Amino acid sequence: MPPTPTTPPPDAVIPERHPQAPAPGTRLGSHYEHCFGCGPQHPGGLRIDAVAGEGLDVTAELTVRDVHQGGPGLAHGGLLTTAMDETLGTLNWLLHAPAVTGRLETDFLSPVPVDSVLHLRAWITGVHGRKIYSAAEARIGGPDGPVAVRAQALFVQVKLEHFTTHGRPEDIEKVLDDPDLMKRARAFEVNP
Ligand SMILES: CCCCCCCC/C=C\CCCCCCCC(=O)SCCNC(=O)CCNC(=O)[C@H](O)C(C)(C)COP(=O)(O)OP(=O)(O)OC[C@H]1O[C@@H](n2cnc3c(N)ncnc32)[C@H](O)[C@@H]1OP(=O)(O)O
User: Fold this and answer.
1) Confidence (pTM)
2) Where does the sequence pass through the membrane (predicted)?
3) To test ligand 1's pocket by mutation, which of 96, 100, 160, 168 has the most ligand atoms within 8 angstroms of CB?
4) Which fold has domain 51-186?
């Protein structure tokens, strides 16, 4: 594939896992219960619950449901992009640095029928300053099934203030009032 803004530059580094990164095999859970990608409280959400890998990688599963349709009986492409975005976003846990998607490129290789189980995998391909480069794939039917969706991304590290400054005030207040969620959010800080 030709280089794009999501291809790490030659002087990008592959960092170590953060010393407090969740151990391999740990379920990463949800960073926010109302998140469309991972929140258990979201009625139509994807409920992605990724598992930390041995290195700078994660895996996750997604069962495509009726509410995820685009074409009749088929997953919506934007929905699949969201699944890639969310899975890539969980890589934050391994670096302990909050980062948001700057650019996300998605290739759709085959249609994904409703009721399919997608096996997602995401991994870091390089870090350059605040820029975190990563890639992901979704295989259909099993971890070794054919690749249905592929993605490359550039995430940019931000401070927690990114969320407190820009989020709708009443939602931020609810988060600030929830000690468990704040504890989880602080775990993201690079220098708490
Ligand atoms: C107390 C409450 C806490 C509650 C929270 C709980 C904890 C939650 C923790 C973690 C949540 C994780 C959630 C994951 C969910 C899935 C991920 C998403 O969907 S995230 C949403 C979609 N994304 C956005 O909304 C970004 C919107 N964009 C921005 O905010 C800015 O544009 C931002 C931060 C991306 C960059 O802005 P700048 O001002 O900070 O930095 P600049 O200088 O512009 O960029 C830095 C470098 O990145 C490159 N860059 C930025 N955007 C790029 C782009 N689109 N393409 C190529 N390069 C780009 C630039 O060229 C620059 O590169 P050079 O350092 O100069 O080499």
Assistant:
1) 0.93
2) none
3) 100
4) Thiol Ester Dehydrase; Chain A (3.10.129)
